[in-house]
Amino acid sequence: MTFAAILAGVKDEIAATLNLTPGEIGDTQLLVSDLGAESIDFIDLTFRLEKRFQLAIPEGELFESATVPAATLTVSAVAEYILNRRPTAP
Questions:
Q1: Rounded to an integer, what distance in angstroms lies between the CA atom of residue 17 and that of residue 64?
Q2: Fewest beta carbons less than 10 Å away: which of 37, 50, 71, 86?
Q3: Which CATH superfamily includes the segment(s) 3-85?
Q4: pLDDT of the chain along its 90 residues, tens only?
Q5: Hey, where are the domains in the chain?
């Protein structure tokens, strides 16, 4: 799966979580300050991303990470995380 496909999927799931359209979501927008995500939204978004991309996101690794606080997390950073977590094709 390409980064562009993952990014589009991430935008779809963010849009569904935050009641937006994918077209309202830019790659470099911040989830919290630009899109209005709150901590409760991250629970739903985590579930949606795990289901869509068939992977497990350990609690505290993506949205509550000590190294990347949720307030500084961009849409493209979420897509990069997914890209790096997906198994590589043989």
A1: 17
A2: 71
A3: ACP-like (1.10.1200.10)
A4: 899 999 999 999 999 999 999 999 999 999 999 999 998 999 999 999 999 999 999 888 888 776 777 788 999 999 999 999 876 554
A5: 3-85
